């Protein structure tokens, strides 16, 4: 090892690892675009053609990109835009306006943002002047003055498109689609949404003006493809790292990792749970952060640990932090649920149930005053383990307010198994069928 | 300017003299002239035939201009009518037609109106006052005058084109006036005042006006000044004895000056020839006002006057003058007026061709400064008029008299001092930044004040502490202006663009999308050509399949426009059935008809309920499109109300298209009420076409009084049948052979069965051309399979594919839901219940059971793409779950695996 290092003047291992981590993090977190979008080639071609016609021929279009979260809709759009702007023709002409339904929560803000991004003449510096009505008129006037052959095409990207459909009267959508269907400045309206029923949200006249082009992004990789993707995501490309030897080492270790049986099983479980890119990236990020100088590769154990963290049950985890009294109350609630088939309960009922348990045991270890029980009950409510049936808290006394347990029985039992030094009588009480 | 309320004056109209003829048939008497007087004022304006008059119109700032042809009334003198020949103002000519002029219209230009469709008989009560009209030759330039009361005729306008004025005709029209009308530059020698104007305004406009007259002859000027001063001594003492105190005089004059200015601003249109001046001045009850005005004049006047004033205030002759004041004021005033007039006549007779401002005497210099007031007034109304007073202030001082030289040198010194202080801070702004009208006005007032003070300071060493106009900025900016203008050419266009840094709303921003740097490519092959033609935006030459509807709308609008009446029509139909397109087509045809003179011209205005932020914006948009005015919603409503309810001669019909009517609904429905009420007014001449989707909208959302006004003229557009759709596409393609017949039929049949929406049909065909272009079998013709693909893409739902693509756990969850539904016999279950089933299914499938957190995540993912309908996620395991797809679809999709 040392001989090789001397010959190639390698970087120290620590340096290499930090570089690898930087490269991979960029890939996993910054959503670096792949060279070619996988699995959505047809959609890519369709969208590229469409936008090219707007940019080059000045044809107005409207299209929706629909697909579940994490299926690669934005990635597809970004790839298309990247490819589109490589053409000089399009690059010189196209104006882009990017809106997001989560940011532009009403038409007024959206209009201001559009005007700002278009650099229309009522923008001074970063400010848009005029009232909402003036802005709308100004923008419509601007778009109306243009025509197919002379004005620059405008690309409107509406992220979270479904949220725009909730705006009052859908004014913005109506006007954008109306422009796209009339002889005005050429526009392309691209909506991105994860709702499959998005067309049903549109009002009928808005819907009529929409061209009904929908591009569905439904990635459906097989497990083999999924595995390959994990491997390519983690592997280093030649040239990524100045130290070739380390890169080769790294790639070999990744390959062995992916061939490991236990790793494959864990990944299969992830694949079964969700096929999208994002949850996959989350898992790989957890693995990557466990790499250190002492352990300069991802080991199967790392991935298993990361996988365990991904699947961990949040509420069961929280149960571990409760006091014995609180746990007892939860068990009492569980019994009440079993008894009354999910009917809501109040503090008094829980306390009675708990007292029954204490009477049977006849030791006074858990004999608490009412106020203490009340406090524990409130703590559970704060943790949202229980929640009131109706939100009006003021009306009834706290002891008699009806509550529901927000936990599943399996979660309670599982937590009891793992609870450190849980008294056996409590455990037994929990196991017993009715009290 | 438009928002203040004008002083309403009541005018009395009376025939003057006996009727010259009596028409037995019509029982009308013709008169030679008409008297107009204002209640409470003894003055009388005489309107004679052949005179030009202003007639009350829609726009208060721009009344109609006409020439009196005939005056007549009925037997008992109740009705007074005037037959007029109209002139059109620039603002009355439609903007689109104004381009035909080929040049910038002069703001005071009017056109001899030869168009049809206007009533040339008006009520005498609508006459405002006489006005001067001057005919110019076609090539002659417009006289460079700040006078806004003289209007110029060059061309005639017949609502289609401009023509040269038939000189014989118009000259005969104009001749009586031209004889009495002075040349435009000397208009100020007859300062106008009308009986209808409040008296305070009149003298104010007189003083500066006559003194504004530039003359090259120093001698005459000096004589005039002396005479004037002498008279002023008398008038001042007569009018207001307490003015003996110099300071109070000073402040009082300033106050009065501003008062007069504001009064004048209120009445910019109130002027008549200056003969009336005498009358006005001699009316005793107005004495104090006159005196104030004269004081103002005195104060604003030259150094010589100041000196005199000083002498006046301190010297023994005061007593004599006070004695004068005891005599009736008329006696004192009269000679002054006479003298003034004498001076004027001298001035008029002097060679007035030389108007070079350089040659002005020191006294005229000051006088010229006062000229700002009328000039400013004009500025206020005529936006792009370059300000002439800049030229005036630029005149170099060429004082002859010693005292004047002394004063001017002191002033200069002071100003220089101020300049040095503020040049750095203000200087740059001053170059670029043109102050708004108001600022201009106030600064000009300051201007006078500064000079006055400077004069007082230097001559009398009286220190006048001026708390109220100490705004150093304004003063320095003023003085800056002067020093600047003295060194540069005076022409400055006030329209200069603001520097980008100025925090102001850019009023002149033009809405436009930048032009493309590279030209758009033209279609290269048949399919691209077809695609271009099939785009919804391309406007077809004709609209097939809507002939009947077209005819109905056409005849409706045409009859209303021809009759000059109003009416409403309600057009309904599902989206994409060509409602708006048909109305536009009708309007195109009607516009064409007006071009060939078949029907009278009309305005066409279009508003869309979807293109406004609030129903009340409808008023704003209508007003803007009708007159170009900008106003708030309430104000616009009031203006429109007035426009549509007041009778106005020469009113064109207005056709208003209200698209997406249902969005104009408000709780009180006043917008809709007004829209439907205006056409019923007698003088509105308004035709309202309304468009909405639902056939029974009037019954459903309108209250009775609104629905009743909408009337029963309804037209319903049926969805297109497949034959019509096919015809539409064929006519659009227009012999471009891109589709197989069967393919077209398939597309149109499918759309007709679904919605009958023509947009859908066109979109499908367009998509089919794209598919055809990329398909392997390159036949060049769009076939059945391509259309089928396009149809599938657009109309098939993605649910089944989506279910096929979701992960194993998600599919299991869907199955668990169905299992739970079956168990419960309901279409709804809580997550907890489903989760039990889910875990059981996991065990059956041999998968590791999932935790609750993971199960919830699966559920949320399905909810996000709306395969499931969920309650808010904060409910956790208690949230209820429903399927958004039918159970059969889910089972089908899962089985296919």
Write the layout of secondary structure elements.
The complex is a heterodimer of chains A (435) and B (897).
Chain A: H1 2-8, H2 13-29, H3 41-57, E1 61-66, H4 73-85, H5 88-93, E2 95-100, H6 107-118, E3 123-124, E4 127-128, H7 132-145, E5 154-159, H8 161-164, H9 171-180, E6 187-193, H10 198-201, H11 204-209, E7 214-216, H12 223-234, H13 244-259, H14 261-273, H15 277-288, H16 300-311, H17 314-319, H18 324-340, H19 347-361, H20 370-382, E8 386-388, E9 403-405, H21 409-418, H22 424-431
Parallel strand pairs in A: 1-6, 1-7, 2-5, 5-6
Antiparallel strand pairs in A: 3-4, 8-9
Chain B: E1 11-16, E2 21-23, E3 28-31, E4 33-38, E5 44-48, E6 52-55, E7 64-74, E8 80-89, H1 95-98, E9 109-113, E10 121-123, E11 127-130, E12 132-135, E13 150-157, E14 162-164, H2 167-180, H3 201-211, H4 218-239, H5 246-266, H6 277-282, H7 287-300, H8 303-314, H9 317-326, H10 329-349, H11 362-370, H12 372-381, H13 389-393, H14 402-432, H15 437-460, H16 472-487, H17 526-534, H18 547-563, E15 567-573, H19 579-595, E16 602-608, H20 617-627, H21 633-645, E17 653-659, H22 670-677, E18 686-692, H23 697-701, H24 704-710, E19 714-717, H25 722-733, H26 741-754, H27 758-774, H28 784-795, H29 799-805, H30 808-824, E20 829-830, H31 831-845, H32 852-864, E21 868-870, E22 880-883, H33 887-895
Helix pairs in contact in B: 3-5, 3-7, 4-7, 4-9, 4-10, 5-7, 8-15, 12-15, 14-15, 14-16, 15-16, 17-27, 18-19, 20-21, 22-24, 25-26, 26-27, 26-28, 27-28, 29-33, 30-31, 30-33
